[in-house]
């Protein structure tokens, strides 16, 4: 692994994910009524959603489309200067650049670019802080809005698919200045998966090898809950609401995250996760390598990874 | 509040606290058998302790003394260059400088200096990564050592007392480059308490106003558990072992941390805490102000702060 | 203590409590929207409420009144024969008898009688099993209705006040055939409190000494949650909704129950509780005696019992 | 289903299980050091174990043998009279009777008999209450002994295998006076599994169809934890100690129990379970029927039941 340690990060954190849905109303109902996000606003094509303690206006932009998958991924820069530094690096990187756009309801101007697999990223600094009103004002002034019973607290990470994880890793290190915390090295020498972060979180983006023949696909988007118990409770809520539970609750061996994966109505996979008190504090963290043999043991407590987890991504691959 | 945002941090994280005890054997028994830390090593004067997932050799240095309180506080720098930058700033700051020392069993050379109230700090980069052996090797390679049933996962923060929190804040911002996330503003205009961080944690050091007439005193040292349930269980363990439970479990209004405070045998206050999924992700976080009226409401769920919490610190003040 | 062991019980369980409110709309809003009960039905004077896994149509009958407190307490008999046996015992007991009534929306005919302090009890066998419809049908057929996110699961117990707990104990043993599991013996020889059960639950009714000069007053009504975490979450929900949190979450020394007490809008005290896996299995259980000195230690983890807990009951005492 | 409701029970609760092991030292180490039981005593052939809040001297009798599986199952009667009533019923039942034995370190004389599949039962009233000494005395006098960090609280149930569950059900209803709370009806009309109780617990004994060709085999023995979190924590403890985790943590659809199954060193399957606040309170409970189609859906949150769960029992079947 390239040594990515001891650097400072220009990007502060994952800001938002634009998710495409061809069942907009059903997806919006799922995210607000069942999954527990709040609707901050809507424009002609999109609903802007956030968890109750996300400070930005939106961390999930749900957009009407004739397909599913990810529209774009937004990272917020640490400062205006850091944004400019990062833009310059990207412009000189040789990766495909889309250039500046005006932003939307949730943030100001943003610089867009693309990874070699077709996923569109943007970085921005100017953002819209969410301002709670009325009953949505939090009882405690250090939380962004009213606590909701069994809902996730903040956006956590997303997982993208690519046909060449090593190449994707080069993109993440170059364009986002991300650091690898854990990765899978297959017996054939390829990297099977890679977990990245730009801060003390254990990861904010993961990339795993595309095994379904698709391009620019999404594996899943994840929000974080305060406690593992919230996820056990959510499992009952999903069950009660007829949501397809793909796998979990269980604990990942990689990253040690307690997880639950479901499919929202349009087929996009979404996760609820809890990392406990785990953070990456060491500035010289040594990326953890997992071998193919390690992976054969299943997840932490022995659950075998189910087949659809390896093949299902959005949008579906046309046959 | 001074605007401390949009800066990058030279310090990576709180590394360790040296705690003094005049009941060394009892304190060591408490920390290893009841509180759940692991003993990494010992030298003539000190025991080196860590939580099961702390990556450094020691995060608590328990030292034989004829008094109690804090010996020194160590922060790890983000890189050798960041360490040099920070040393230069401190040398030019006018604060009292002790200079370089050779380190100890747990880390390499460190630069020491002192706040105006007598608390000694050190910063260092070279450290000793803990290497688990035998039964202590973790089943999952991404954790530092074997999981212990009901024990805290990593060092979290400490709380110091000072007679002038505004002055202490200037010290922290100047010497450590820390950022304020929340603070108390008393009706008399003084800052009653201030919570600092050098990373995405909500705080790694707090300072509250000394009300007992002491100098350089410690309020408490805290380790983080994965779940709130670990703290409820720990309360039963403390009860069973005759430990003095001062207050909790309950939830702080400030910072929203779930807490439990006990006194170790020599009288130093130690806490177990869980912050849920809360992190400070915004690079332009606006410090939260709590008024005296806010504080009158008690903790989050209404518990009145007990008197000893305002007056007990270590070492005790001689009358 | 009288030996109440080795007997079989004619009564199966606490069935329901009728709670009086002089703020009917506010109370109903609280119980359905905040506390998490479900509305089974309404008649002219009352709303019939139940927790999501209560099998009967109602476990809380909320009744419009010009006062607060308890209307009556209903226990379900184990069989028609057991009901007849019990009625005969009560008729011969000398306690005040109200006689048979026709029941209400939630159960068939019931036999009413009264303790020496004015609390009205009824026993019945014919009941109305709740039948869930539509979205309220549970995903798992072994639960009574749809799981609700952070809501209590079933009715648990109530606590009444009386000026002579020893006399109340005689009433409970005689009329209900209840068994004492734990009790407080004051230094003056009086029983300060007594916990009763007619099954394997640790208690379904408690009686504590009236210290406010009232008659026939209610101390609190309690529902049980599946996990302690549900209670911590509920505390945040109560906080967010401006509910008066009186004390908790904490763990009782007596009975070891994890508790949280709040006041509903009309002032009746209600609790959420979790007893963990504790049950009274021993047929020859020896009642646990708590002394006044034991009580001075506070609750399990040291919390001092707050003053209002000793004095507040409903209805309030007129001065 | 035969109507078993409205009856009173002569038996109070499941008292203990005698488990056979051909790896006595390893099994004893597992149960005391990893699974979290306490050793009450030992005689030449057996170790007597209990959970920290079991009131009897032993709830698991671990016996040296040249095989594995269950030695016998003990139920405690509700009174001496109830014991005599039950003995008379059994003597007249036609089932195989072993007669009275003198008991052992944990209880007095017991009456033994046998089901048609070779499982040996005994019923007794005279028992040995556990008396904690020294450090094992509980801090709270209403618990049986000192709280242990991550350990189960009390014995819960066992699961036996039989080639004809309908026949086994007749045995349980006749000899033990048990009540069926839930059962599986296969498409071929046979009962695939049946859950029994003699009190308010949802079940204390389950019987599922033998699919491995064995006789008198044990499927598993289970202890109850206070919270689901204890089971998640135990999973990490089992992982750390190299214990074979067969399946879980997950939630059963049948009975709704949160479960985790592991194999102790000799191969006997043991479970940790948490039923939340669920109890069977209704005296006229209608047994819940699960069809083969229901079972095809997997456990509550969709986990498919793994193959070994259907075939592994102890002792193993000789080929």
Explained architecture:
Four copies of one chain form a homotetramer. Chain A is built from six helices and 17 strands. Chain A has 319 residues and is an alpha/beta fold. The first copy, chain A, has one domain (11-311): 2,3-Dihydroxybiphenyl 1,2-Dioxygenase, domain 1 (Roll), CATH 3.10.180.10. In chain A, the strands form two sheets. Chain A has a nine-stranded mixed sheet with strand order 14-15-16-13-9-12-11-10-17. In chain A, strands 2-3-4-1-5-8-7-6 form an eight-stranded mixed sheet. At the C-D interface, loops of C face loops of D.
List keywords for this structure.
eight-stranded mixed β-sheet; 17 strands; 2,3-Dihydroxybiphenyl 1,2-Dioxygenase, domain 1; disordered N terminus; homotetramer; alpha/beta
Question: How do you describe this structure in short?
Answer:
The structure is a homotetramer of 319-residue chains. By secondary structure, the first copy, chain A, is an alpha/beta fold.
Radius of gyration of chain A (CA) equals 18 Å
CATH 4th-level superfamily of chain A:
2,3-Dihydroxybiphenyl 1,2-Dioxygenase, domain 1
Using the alpha-carbon principal axes, give the shape of chain A.
globular
CATH topology of chain A: 2,3-Dihydroxybiphenyl 1,2-Dioxygenase, domain 1
Residues in helix, % of chain A: 10-25%
Detail the poorly predicted runs of chain A.
1-6
| Name given to the CATH architecture of chain A | Roll
Determine and state the CATH class of chain A: Alpha Beta
Strand content of chain A: 25-35%
N-to-C SSE series of chain A? EHEEEEHEEEEHEEEEHEEEEHH
Largest interface: C-D, 49 and 49 residues
Number of strands of chain A: 17
The largest β sheet of chain A comes out as: 9 strands, mixed
**Mean pLDDT across residues of chain A:** 95
The overall number of domains of chain A is 1
Q: What structural category do the secondary elements of chain A indicate?
A: alpha/beta
